[in-house]
Amino acid sequence: MKRSLVSLLAVFVLSAMVLAGCDKGYDQNGVERSATEESVNIADKKVGVCIYQFSDVFMSLYREELGKALEDLGFSKDNITFFDSFNDPDLQITQVRRLIDEGADVLIVNPVSSASAEAITDIAVEAGVPLIYINREPTAADEARWEENEWDVTYIGCDARQSGMYQGEIISDLGMDVVDTNDDGIIQYMMIEGDPENVDTQIRTEYSVKVLSDAGIKLECVSDEIGNFHRDTANQIMGKAIAEGSHVEVVFCNNDAMALGVIDALKNSDKKVGKDIFVVGVDGLEEALQSVIDGKLTGTVFNDFFQQAISTAEAAEKFVSGEKNDHYIACRYIKVTAENATKILEEIKE
């Protein structure tokens, strides 16, 4: 009788252990889930997304992929809200407050400006809502606060230094004998910047020419203009330079939209890209990649919005499941020239 009772108790304990193991479960990689993760219904969680400007071609692509990535992880489309901040920092702050009031469980913000991010951080932290910044990096001072206070705030994006350096390398790899079209031993260049308050703008502008100067190449800045990432504005800037007869050998553009604007202007001139002038951008838009293939654009730097969108969705999933994220989740740019533009374009179109 006693032996039977002990055996019965052992069976009961073993069964309880098995059931507990079943309750925990395992994720798709075979890693044991915590009780917190298992109890979260991702489909019920609300995601609030603020994009600095829907009309930005790159961010439009990013936004589309982010929506897909969130849904692939189980977030309900009905619970994902996207706001266009129309490049207005005050409007974006109002939108963040509204998303919080409407019960957002996690915020994803592509800040209008790096400077305005600090206010958004304060609002999210005070409300206890995890925050993910994308594409436009907040200031170093703001990021230091996240780590110091262990806040649920993270940034997902690439190091702008790398994009600027790749632009410079595309030019330096061509050689002075190709780029120095007037044979004066100096590269005359034009810089067309994006939003001057954007950290990426500042860093890309600095590092694209730093690579060349560090290599001992003499440089002369013919002009440094603000294009605000707009194609039409860059077109006008380049058109003015052509009309004034400025001798420009290289045009650095902080993004592809402006680079495309530059080559639009060059179509109406006697200057040919790859022979008389060399133009580089950043982002890896389809039109820009095709322009590299066609010899209309010297090169660009691919900003992998596919991987960034996936990383952002995964970070959102971790936050709503009660987990922590690293404060900085990095990705890498890819230098694009005629040698690899076709491969990257094919990957984008898949």
Textual characterization of the structure:
The chain has 350 residues and is an alpha/beta fold. The protein folds into two domains: 41-158 and 304-331, Rossmann fold (3-Layer(aba) Sandwich), CATH 3.40.50.2300; 161-302, Rossmann fold (3-Layer(aba) Sandwich), CATH 3.40.50. Helices cover 48% and strands 17% of the residues. The chain has helices spanning 2-24, 35-39, 57-72, 89-101, 117-127, 140-149, 160-172, 176-179, 199-214, 231-243, 256-266, 286-293, 305-320, 341-349; strands at 47-51, 80-84, 106-109, 131-134, 153-158, 186-193, 218-226, 250-253, 278-280, 300-302, 328-331, 334-336. The strands form three sheets. It has a six-stranded parallel β-sheet with strand order 2-1-3-4-5-11, sandwiched between helices. It has a four-stranded parallel β-sheet with strand order 7-6-8-9, with helices on both faces. Strands 10-12 form a two-stranded antiparallel ribbon. The termini are far apart.
Short account of what is shown:
By secondary structure, the protein is of the alpha/beta class. It is built from 14 helices and twelve strands.
Architecture blueprint of SSEs:
Elements: H1 2-24, H2 35-39, E1 47-51, H3 57-72, E2 80-84, H4 89-101, E3 106-109, H5 117-127, E4 131-134, H6 140-149, E5 153-158, H7 160-172, H8 176-179, E6 186-193, H9 199-214, E7 218-226, H10 231-243, E8 250-253, H11 256-266, E9 278-280, H12 286-293, E10 300-302, H13 305-320, E11 328-331, E12 334-336, H14 341-349
Parallel strand pairs: 1-2, 1-3, 3-4, 4-5, 5-11, 6-7, 6-8, 8-9
Antiparallel strand pairs: 10-12
